[in-house]
Amino acid sequence: MASITLEGGVDARETAEERAQRQVQAWKALAGAWEADTDFEEEVALLYAGRTAGRDIDL
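^ that's the sequence the OP posted. Answer follows.
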């Protein structure tokens, strides 16, 4: 169990499951909220341009 400090300085205890659910809710609140200065196609091109070829492997 972890101890967290809530707004107003109140301590609360939460389980790992409760902490994980709180994190999931935070991510859901952020989903779709990101605003970029580039359009989708340019963002994808930038991501691909930044990738490396990776390492050589023998199959």
